[in-house]
Amino acid sequence: MTPSSYTAAIPIRRRRPFPLWIPFLFVWLLLLPFVLLFAPLIFLGCLLVRVNPFRGVAVYWQVFNGLRGLRIQVDDPCAPISIRII
Amino acid sequence: MNENRKQILDMLAAGQINADQAERLIAALEKEPPTPSAGDSTESRPKAWPKYLRVVVEAEEGHHANGPAKVNVRVPIQLLRAGVKLASIIPPQARLKVNDALHDKGVELDLNQIKPGNLEEVIYQLKDLTVDIDDKNNKVRVFCE
Questions:
Q1: Helix (H) or strand (E) holding B123
Q2: Which residues numbered 2-31 in A keep a CB inside 8 Å of some CB on B?
Q3: Least C-beta-crowded within 10 Å: which of A37, B39, B63, B73?
Q4: Are the beta carbons of A76 and B81 separated by less than 8 Å?
Q5: Cα separation of A75 and B137, whole Å?
């Protein structure tokens, strides 16, 4: 299943961690024009390195889908970090 | 009488299916392996495939001046599977370079030998994996769940 959102709380310059929630749908909408723009280049690049472009895209898609459920949590008094992909 | 079989006979009696269809459904039921009942012991059931690889690190207060620290990482096994597939699309020239670099670092790993089929076996064995490291100040646990 495709991940739906990314949640992170990372402190910047020793300040209190700022919670960040990014829905992937929003990211897709932002990236879509760039993907369409660079698709021919990606296709050519794959052919240059002798990789089936469709297989390449499928594998990267599987990697992205595999991220669902990833959780990194660091409970450190100095730098508490929390990253979750749901 | 088996619940499914009774349901098929009821459907036949209600005229929803004909005798031929009922016979085929019953034959299909008989081919199905028996489902484990609630009373079965957990030992007889095969263990579920692991879903996540967990790494838990606990550093005690004495080691860190600011208090105890804890690291909790949960990596989906699906990501490992996809990672191996990713390795399979690395161009042959790059794969050779990676193999050479690994060899130089003392890691005897051949990327050509890593195949998704082999990985399934590794993942299945991972369900019993537990690595416990108890240091004076730190505890590290690696396991699958």
A1: helix B116-126
A2: none
A3: B39
A4: no
A5: 16
Measured between alpha carbons, how far is B123 from B84 in angstroms, rounded to an integer? 12
Lowest mean pLDDT among A64-73, B25-34, B132-141: B25-34
Answer whether A77 sits within 8 Å of B80, measured CB to CB. Answer: no
Instruction: Return the number of other C-beta atoms located less than 10 Å from residue B82's C-beta.
Output: 21
Q: How far is CA A34 from the centre of its chain?
A: 15
pLDDT at B31: 64
Whether the pTM exceeds 0.80: the reply is: no
User: Do B76 and A68 make contact, defined as CB atoms within 8 angstroms?
Assistant: yes
Contacts of B85 (CB under 8 A, 6+ apart): A59, A62, A63, B116
Q: Which residues lie below 8 Å from residue B118, measured CB to CB, with a gap of 6+?
A: none
Tell me which residue in B76, B86, B92 faces A70 most closely, judged by beta carbons.
B76
In sequence order, what are the beta bridge partners of B144? B53
